[in-house]
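Q: Predict the bound structure with magnesium ion.
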Amino acid sequence: MSVDTTPQKGIAIAAEHVSKKFGHVQALRDASIQVRYGEVVGLCGDNGAGKSTFLRILQGIYHPDSGRLYIDHHPVTLHSVRDAQRLGVDTVHQDLALAPELSVIDNMFLGHETLRSGILGRFGVLAHKEMSEKTDAALRELSIALPSLTVPVRDLSGGQRQALAVARAVMWSRSAILMDEPTAALGARQSEIVSQLIRRVAQSNLGVLVVSHDLPRLLTFADRIVVLWRGESVLDEPAANLTVPDLVATMVGYRSGEAI
Ligand SMILES: Nc1ncnc2c1ncn2[C@@H]1O[C@H](COP(=O)(O)OP(=O)(O)OP(=O)(O)O)[C@@H](O)[C@H]1O
Ligand SMILES: [Mg+2]
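A: Predicted complex:
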């Protein structure tokens, strides 16, 4: 696969021929993925296939041994999470990275202190009123209803926390959002709400990359699916063409005779 870098094609984030080794473990081998603006791409694969490693490379946590990364059509080199954030890429971590004792408003600005002073600091210290208004607008934009913006996050339900973490990523990103297992800890109803939220995020014209083991649900909200098998990207298809048995077969044994 080769990455199309023309702006018309709208690449939000992409990786081309990326490899990464940890000691003797080849976590990624010549793996490629593209996420366009307005698109949800599901990344799946068996345990240890390299999904989190791929996400961490796109986030700037790990540096690939070889291969190229693109954000907003441009080739980039990422040295840190801050680099990715500055280029408009934000992440919803599996543990959500929320501070339970802090309010909804404070959590919306958590982890973005540097950007905050850069982008919003033009007017001096950001007044609480402005933070509150910005939080309110960001939640409204995604139709997220929370009991109050001043309530500590520990008083929110699992689904409300997940929605808050997604809204925070949307508020700070311009290109793409990366999510590791966004519905893993949620019940059926809350998973459905978060899935719909992920679609709305893509409709706001961001690229969304979602790692998930929940294949039936992923097929309902992803536009495209990429499967990693032992570090290789072995399938990249529109979700509409795929079934759960297709995906499982690809995930567990890409080539006949090499199945586990
Ligand atoms: N920091 C690290 N140091 C050494 N080995 C690592 C490191 N991170 C990942 N690995 C190894 O790389 C391979 C891919 O791991 P990764 O966490 O990316 O898989 P995954 O697809 O996210 O799996 P899971 O579905 O279990 O979350 C595994 O063999 C793992 O043990
Ligand atoms: Mg993982």
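A: The chain has one domain: 7-252.
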